[in-house]
């Protein structure tokens, strides 16, 4: 076992499971879908190390006592609270086509995003009509939940309700740094002064690109139009690439 730079224990290679509520006590039972996955897919056996969290930073670590039809019974050895990382990363993601929305959420979650905002941009090919908004948001939240476990993060990123351009502008105005990815921007992301605390917001447009009106509105809200490099990335991967670049200058520094 090692200790992270946040001052909390780490279990190298130990799987993470998530429960809505983390029960107290010296033992806990991981049942339901999580328990079935642990027993039937991962085939965890007595003595193996695991972590169980509530997705909000509370984590219990321990060892498997038994694995069976009722689930995974775990002897808890320690509990700890993991603080949220600083700065906070917010990804404003225009709705991509097909399954690229959950892909964008998956990649951003693995790379440390704290909040994901689905955005109904003017040129989005995908449209969440009134009867599809709840389903679309639920699908993104499910992707964030799964990616949190895969990347063994103690916090599940928030996926907000679908927002309009006007609502996005109000949010960007409150950020310590807001950037809008634009292939025609002259200023590279690498040329910006990156705050080491507060909130950093990244806006990623749709496959059809941003409209001039959207760019003007975001700039008026205080956002900087930037480019990552000479390549034009897909909307589903641009956010993740930007988060990685920001982490190199903040969290991973």
UniProtKB/TrEMBL annotation:
<comment type="function">
    <text>Specifically methylates the N3 position of the uracil ring of uridine 1498 (m3U1498) in 16S rRNA. Acts on the fully assembled 30S ribosomal subunit.</text>
</comment>
<dbReference type="InterPro" id="IPR046887">
    <property type="entry name" value="RsmE_PUA-like"/>
</dbReference>
<dbReference type="InterPro" id="IPR015947">
    <property type="entry name" value="PUA-like_sf"/>
</dbReference>
<feature type="domain" description="Ribosomal RNA small subunit methyltransferase E PUA-like">
    <location>
        <begin position="30"/>
        <end position="74"/>
    </location>
</feature>
<feature type="domain" description="Ribosomal RNA small subunit methyltransferase E methyltransferase">
    <location>
        <begin position="86"/>
        <end position="246"/>
    </location>
</feature>
<protein>
    <recommendedName>
        <fullName>Ribosomal RNA small subunit methyltransferase E</fullName>
        <ecNumber>2.1.1.193</ecNumber>
    </recommendedName>
</protein>
<dbReference type="InterPro" id="IPR046886">
    <property type="entry name" value="RsmE_MTase_dom"/>
</dbReference>
<keyword id="KW-0963">Cytoplasm</keyword>
<dbReference type="InterPro" id="IPR006700">
    <property type="entry name" value="RsmE"/>
</dbReference>
<keyword id="KW-0808">Transferase</keyword>
<dbReference type="Pfam" id="PF20260">
    <property type="entry name" value="PUA_4"/>
</dbReference>
<dbReference type="GO" id="GO:0070475">
    <property type="term" value="P:rRNA base methylation"/>
</dbReference>
<dbReference type="Pfam" id="PF04452">
    <property type="entry name" value="Methyltrans_RNA"/>
</dbReference>
<dbReference type="InterPro" id="IPR029028">
    <property type="entry name" value="Alpha/beta_knot_MTases"/>
</dbReference>
<dbReference type="GO" id="GO:0070042">
    <property type="term" value="F:rRNA (uridine-N3-)-methyltransferase activity"/>
</dbReference>
<keyword id="KW-0949">S-adenosyl-L-methionine</keyword>
<dbReference type="InterPro" id="IPR029026">
    <property type="entry name" value="tRNA_m1G_MTases_N"/>
</dbReference>
<dbReference type="GO" id="GO:0005737">
    <property type="term" value="C:cytoplasm"/>
</dbReference>
<keyword id="KW-0489">Methyltransferase</keyword>
<keyword id="KW-0698">rRNA processing</keyword>
<comment type="similarity">
    <text>Belongs to the RNA methyltransferase RsmE family.</text>
</comment>
